């Protein structure tokens, strides 16, 4: 039985089919345009349109329906790590609802909550504390996405937020340095911090790559596809087009760098004895020429592109691998 991992973005839909989670034998990797331009249907008509689009995908590409895994964009969920006094399992289960009300800005009647203990002392002492990960999602929005698939006879095995998928695709452990994970998308960027191999926090930035595409298209009178090609192939190379492309893209990238600087300051405030050591880039826009060097110079940090297929084998795509980071994280999740 194969795993079908779907990452539905506003610009495109990424799909990876793999034989299993352990060996990650890739059978197929597909990227197609999202003709509806949305990731979350808001009403019954949009649910039907979405269902038809997804049904066509499964039919046209003969996708396995037995183990379908879906990603949720970060704006549909709210993720927080809280530090609370030591509680046993029963006490935590009783108190977690109240804790979520304080930390998760989603109305109680529309909240679906999951939690996981990240760090807990072996024994209770007077001042012992524990860290708990809270993941709250809008029940109404998640149900609409679920209904899209139920309408075509598919019950998703799991749905999880994109940021956890991309972090899993990196296979970071406690020996890795303090890391910013920057997942770049069309409509926004997720900036997460990993410390000691554990998720610390995530910040959503609205500086998505569609802003860059639109600016390029308008300035050079190009269609959207051409603008994206210019962004990836020429990007921040000042020798291209007499530096005009660099001048267009640079202010938008500067806003992204400001968001990264804010993230670093927030981490340092909470951990004065530690420093962010590196930035890892994921997502299709992260392939922009000159981006790694620009961020590295601005932050004075090591910056690298991820390798989501590093442990995979089989039909690995030769190009655009960073676009499939979410899918590879979904596949790597062990049930």
Topology:
Blueprint: E1 3-8, E2 12-18, E3 25-33, H1 44-60, E4 67-72, E5 77-85, H2 89-103, E6 111-119, E7 129-138, H3 139-150, E8 158-161, H4 162-170, E9 179-184, E10 189-195, E11 198-205, H5 209-220, H6 224-233, H7 244-270, E12 278-282, H8 291-299, E13 302-305, E14 313-314, H9 325-332
Parallel strand pairs: 1-4, 3-14, 4-8, 9-12, 12-13
Antiparallel strand pairs: 1-2, 2-3, 5-7, 6-7, 9-10, 10-11
Which features does this protein show?
335 residues; alpha/beta; Nucleotidyltransferase, domain 5; Dna Ligase, domain 1; six-stranded mixed β-sheet; five-stranded mixed β-sheet; globular
CATH class of the largest domain: Alpha Beta
Helix content: 25-40%
Distance between the termini: 14 Å
Question: What assembly state would you assign to the polypeptide chains in this entry?
Answer: single chain
SSE string:
EEEHEEHEEHEHEEEHHHEHEEH
What structural category do the secondary elements indicate? alpha/beta
Strand order, sheet with most strands: 8-4-1-2-3-14
CATH topology description of the largest domain: Nucleotidyltransferase, domain 5
Strand composition percent: 25-35%
Mean pLDDT: 93
